[in-house]
Structure formats: structure tokens, C-alpha cells
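Troubleshooting log. The previous structure file for this entry was overwritten by mistake, so regenerating from the original sequence record. Sequence copied from the archived sheet and checked twice against the printout by T.R.
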Amino acid sequence: MPTPSSLDGLLEKTQRYLNAEQVQQIQAAFEFGALAHSGQTRKAGGDYIWHPVAVAEILADIQLDHESIISAILHDVIEDTSYTKDDIIERFGERVAEIIDGVTKLGKIAFDSPQEAQAENFRKMLLAMSRDIRVILIKLADRLHNMRTLGVMRPDKQRRIARETLDIYAPIAARLGINSFRIELEDLGFRAMYPRRFAALEKAVKKARGNRKEVVEQIADAIQKRLAQEGVTAEVIGREKHLYSLYKKMQKKRLSFEEVLDIFAFRIIVENVDECYRTLGMVHSLYKPLPGKFKDYIAIPKPNGYQSLHTLLFGPYGVHIEVQIRSRVMHEVSEHGIAAHWQYKQTGDANSVHSPVDVRAQEWVRNLLEIQQSAGNSLDFLENVKIDLFPDVIYVFTPQGDIITLPKNATAVDFAYAVHTNLGHACVGCRIDRQLVPLRSVLESGQTVEIIKSKDTQPNPNWLNFVTTAKARSQIRHFLKNQHSQSASELGQRLLTKAMRIHNMSYSGLTDEMIESLIRALKIESWTQLLEEIGLGQRMAGLVAKQIHDNVLGKDDQIVHENSQHQPLAISGTEGLVVNYAQCCHPIPGDDIIGSMSTGKGLVIHRQNCKNVKHYQNQPDKWLEVDWDANSEELFSVEIQLEVKNQRGALAMIASEIANTKTDIERVRSEDKDDTYSLMNFVVLVRNLDHLDDLLRHLKRVPIVEKAHRITT
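Regenerated output below.
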């Protein structure tokens, strides 16, 4: 049995804020854990039980409730010992067992790759966190102790774990506002990832510290005296940036070590919010502020609940002084985040969430749930969460005055999805500060954003090229994937219906028995899967129809169709993503067209005279007879070329004339033909051939236009 010295330390810390009965339960958890892990050791040396005890001590330092401490002591029992979740429930209750299960890794499940295993493990942990956020706090403490003892690992494994820590765990600690965890995770990860850079920076900081000490003390003393004159009692702390923060700042802003260290940082802790703003005025009267460098995170807290006033000042000797002003409560939140106002300590209610930090954390967790529900797989989910852990944020307003927090470089589409998924799906336009702007417009802090929506619209695949938030990206992909499947299934049914007519059969005459027989023969999961594969070009409708005729129909089956077998497939432009219009010839209603099946793309429509489908004419199995639906009202892309006299404002004149015909321009390019003329190519949106002819007639009347014609291929 190991010596109980570390247990004494844990019990001493928990006795300061827990009652005697809760401390006894912690003692019992230790005894159970020591028995369960008996005979197990760590690579760092010593009995294994001291790792979970160390994790529990980390949580005791931030005064988490007794269920968290017990769960930390037992967090590896289900995974690494013969005891089960039921054993935990029997001894310590269901809530403790649920927390431990959330922390437990998926080591017993086989995955195709280490990356997939890590991603699925991460997904499970975050889903468990959605039920009880204490899961992630224990996982962060577990990772922190592992990082403290990382030196016994092979260098390559140290780097892998350090990279995971810097990419995932430190940003999560930041997102939950647990600054004390974040700083140590970042510095330990930096040391393991780049040991030489860490050592060089650490040495440089120690060397510079002596020279700076006198200046720091002088500035702190000046601030303290100024506040005392106004009757404000405050704690003034000269602070150093931690090493990883210095390193990232040097990298991001391409600064030398001396340039980064030029900034002296101070934290002023006062009693309440009123004194925060009074103190700001006092330090501004003492040292002049730099314009544009003031940030009020009290009025508008950061997404993790962090609150402080930040200002940058011109100090003595030409140095810059960075000052953070906060109340004692804000300081506690800054250090411990969601754990600072921990409700479990008083109520034991897992659903008790009242503080702003807790509310923001729960909002983030709910957002993660939405992302995971629409993510294709665990790797997509992990990548989306990484995208969402942005350090830089902006604050914009809804027309009602609500604040929406978004990552830097977020667009109007990101804003729409942040407000509500349905608003994102339906957005067609945007007003920023009452000015109409494109949906791809990048937002800036302080703007008021209004989304224009339409019930007849849907997400555009091109949005994926500019959205930045994980929620927007995952919801767009989820919608398009579902729409793609539905469109493919509908097209597949139309293609199979047409193919069956050749064999004098009717699709509507298929019975459930025939469908089941074909599903078994083709070894597929469902009829919907078959229709999707036909629609996506992965199966030929003609071959499926022939198989129905030859192998599925019995001698007595009669499903005769009365219509002509030569009726072409009608194309309306509303078929979705599985009917594509060839970019080489830009077919539009009124053109003679042909359809070719392309694996994965579905049906591709070309003009019949397009050179890219000429070789299909003698291969009837490669193409489909198609025609335009007479009732189509959709817009189609077509390319036109103009030969225009070179003169100032020519492009604006042509664009204006196109707009006068109520025609939209999709894109344009221009090049000089010679000294006198330029060639302008426009891709425009038209309803049909008549619309195009009308547009060309208008353009030919423009004085500077010599020629105007359609690009045929």
C-alpha cells in the first residue's frame, strides 16, 4: 500500500471548503481506487493511484465539489481495471459514474487510424460534457498532470501529446475561462514541442528581469500612490507574459524579443465595478493613453465570461504600459473561469447554472451539440471544433440590440447561422448599418447586422468558400448533403421510369415483392439507395430496368405502360445538385440539349453541338435524350463575348446596359485585342434563348460595341 502523504495534502485542501461527510467520501474513493489500481505503476514511477490523486488535488485547488474530486480519483477505474460502471454506481452513485464514463477513453474500440480514434474520443468527451460540464474540468486537470510528468515519454510521443494540448486542450481551457489551466498547459506544451526555443526564451527573460525590476517597481508605486490619493484601495501587480504568450506574439507580429519586452504589464485589482472605471480615469490622468488601444470587456465580456478594462499607456522613459483593471470577483473568474462560481459547492444540483461564465459555457456546449449532430463523422467534428476555438473575436448587434459574438473575419452568413440555423438557411441578403451589402461581407465590431430572408431560398454551396464559424460550415454541409441525397433519389426515379418504358414497363406498377427481390439481387440496403446511385451516375438506369424485366418479373407479371418509350426527360432547372449544366457550352432553355451521366456528379447537360459530347452520338448507352420543361422559370448561366472600343469607362457602360435589360452578371474578364479594341467576356444569368437574344440586340446598339455574340463552346 502506498504512503498516504499525497492523500493528506488532498484531504487538507478539501477540508477547507467541504463538510466532514464529503471528505469521508473522498477518503473512501481513495481506498477504492487504490485497491482497483493495485499493482499498476506509471512510466514516471510510483504506484498508479497517485496520478488520479494528483488530478484531484488540481481540482481541489480551484475548490470543485466533492463529486468532482471523487470522479477525478476514480477517472481511470472503468478503463484500466476490472471494475465496471455498475460497480461505481453501487458505491458512489449514478452522477459520479456518469462523469467517469464521460472522461473514459475509447481504448477498447478498433478504429481505422489514430486520428479517428482521437477524434471519436474527443467527440464522446464533449457529448458527456454536454450532460455534465465537470467532465471537461476533470479531463483538463488530467491533461495538466500528464503534461507535468511528460518528460519520461519518448521525444516523438512528447511532441504528439504537446501538439494535441496546444491545439485542443489549452484553447478549451481558454474558452471556459480557466486561465490558470490555460497558461500552464500552453507553457508545458511549448516546452515539449519546441524545447530549444523554450530554453532560449526562458534564459532571455531571466536575464532581462533584473534590468526591468526597478522600472516595474517605480511604475507600480506611482499607480498605487495615485489611487490612494483618491481613496481607492487596490492591489497593483507588475506581471510578466508567460513564455508561450511571448513566443506567439513574436511570431504573429514578427517582433524581436526586445520589442516584445518593451511593454510593461500591470494588473490592478479593486473592489467593485464602479472603482474599475474610476481607476481607469486615474491611470489616464497619470500616463497618457494610446489612441484606439482601450477595450471595455466589462460592458461586453469575452465569450468565456472574462471581464476587465484594458488600456495601453505612454509610461516614463518612453516605455509602453499595458494595464488591466478588474474587480476581485472578475479576477477570480479570470483565473478559474466556470469553476469560479461553481454551483455544485452550494446546491449539488448538476443543472444549477446562474453565473455569466456558466451561462456562456453552456451556450458553447449547446453550440457543440448542434455541430456534432450535423457533422459527417468524428474527424469532421474535431476539425469543426478546432475552427471554433478562435482567440480573436468581434461583437456585432442584431437590429433589436442583442450582442452576437463571432470570430474575427466572420461574414454575414456566419452571423445568420449564429442567430438561428433556420435564418442561415433562408438568408438572401444583408444590411450592415442599414446599407445593403453582399452576404460574403466581413463584419467588424460595433456594426448592426440585419439579415434579409426568403422562404423560397436555400444554402448555396459557394458559402463554404467564405464562412468561418464551425456552426455555419457544419449546418451548410449537413443541408447540402441531405439535399444532394434527395435530389439524386428523385432524379434516379425519373431516369428509371424512362428506362423502364423501353421495356414496356411502368414504374408505378412495381410491387413491394418486386422491389424486395431486386434489392436482394443487387445486394443493396434499400430502394432509396438504388435510386440515389442511379441519380448520381453510379448505376445505369437502363441496366437496372433490363434486370427488372429479365430477372425480377414473373411470367404472369404485366406492368405495361401506355406512353411512348421515346419521350425525353424534361429538365426544369430545379433538380438540385445532381443535374449540372456544363461550363464548356452553358446550355439554356431553347437550346437542343443532350444529357450524359457522370459518376458522382449525376446528369450533366450539354448543348447537342458541344464538341465535348460529339463522341457520345454513337454510344447510346452513354447519353440520355433530354428536353427543357416548357414551364421553367429558373435562371441559367451563359457566356457572351463583346468586342469593344478602348475608352475610359467602357466596362461601366456595358455593365449598365446589361443591368437595364434586368440581367445579372455572374463574372467578367477583359483583355486587350489590340491598341483599338478590347475583348470582354461576361457570364450572365438568363431565363432562355429569347432573353439572351434580346440582351445581345441591346448590346449591339451600344456605340462602342463592334461585335457581340454567344460563346458556343
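The longest strand covers residues 636-645. Archived copy saved in two places this time.
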